[in-house]
Design a protein that fits this description.
Elements (H helix, E strand, L loop, with lengths): L3 E6 L5 H12 L2 E3 L2 H10 L3 H8 L5 H8 L5 H6 L7 H19 L2 E4 L3 H6 L9 E7 L2 H12 L3 H22 L12 E4 H18 L1
Parallel strand pairs: 1-3, 1-4, 2-3, 4-5
Helix pairs in contact: 1-10, 2-6, 8-9
């Protein structure tokens, strides 16, 4: 049986909500925005600053300009904390926390390059992990953005595009993989097919199998 589930997801696909349902049904720990507070404790930076940094830098070019060069998590692990730009310090803090919580108990981790971070660590076996990518039909993503996140209908499509671009740029900058590329995931699920509860049920069944 798998011990760790990582979830990458399109904005509006319900990936976070699905992850929480899965954790509750399995009796596992669930980590999403909780990682912000834990990373704040690890880095000494404020939770608000970390959250803001996650919501900015949608441009890959701007990201690389701030970093000074293309980034890899191997560099982050080896560099001295005081020599790193703030965006690197945040990533390193989250990386440390992800490795820590994954060791402590079975858990579901949403976003933040967790799949790559755990895969790249010698302390974890890929057979213990189930890496998921959750997406949804465009109309369903727009509907959820409006209903669940309170985004105005006229802005929903643009916001979804911006958030997905930001997630892809973050992932592609801090890992050696490509966000959403099927070869990096064990299962890709369209949450429009079975709905949020149905998708969660499918994942639980896959874990137990």
């Amino acid at each position: 049986m798998k011990k760790i589930i990582t979830i990458s997801r399109e904005h509006g696909s319900g990936g976070s909500a699905i992850g929480k349902m899965v954790a509750e049904q399995l009796g596992w720990k669930y980590y999403d925005k909780q990682l912000i507070d834990l990373a704040a404790d690890e880095s000494g930076l404020s939770p608000k600053f970390i959250e803001k940094s996650e919501q900015s830098l949608s441009s890959g070019w701007f990201y690389n300009m701030m970093l000074g060069s293309n980034y890899s998590s191997n560099y982050a692990a080896a560099a001295t904390p005081n020599t790193l730009p703030l965006v690197d310090q945040i990533f390193n803090a989250q990386r440390t926390i992800i490795l820590k919580v994954a060791k402590e108990s079975p858990c579901v981790i949403v976003g933040r390059c967790a799949d790559y971070i755990l895969h790249s660590s010698e302390d974890f076996n890929d057979n213990d992990m189930l890496n998921l990518f959750i997406y949804a039909n465009p109309d369903d993503r727009i509907k959820r953005a409006i209903e669940a996140y309170g985004i105005p209908e006229k802005d929903a499509k643009k916001t979804i595009t911006q958030v997905n671009k930001r997630r892809a740029n973050h992932y592609n900058t801090f890992t050696e993989w490509t966000w959403g590329a099927y070869e990096h995931y064990d299962i890709l699920l369209n949450s429009s097919y079975a709905g949020l509860e149905g998708t969660a049920k499918l994942i639980v069944e896959a874990v137990k199998a």
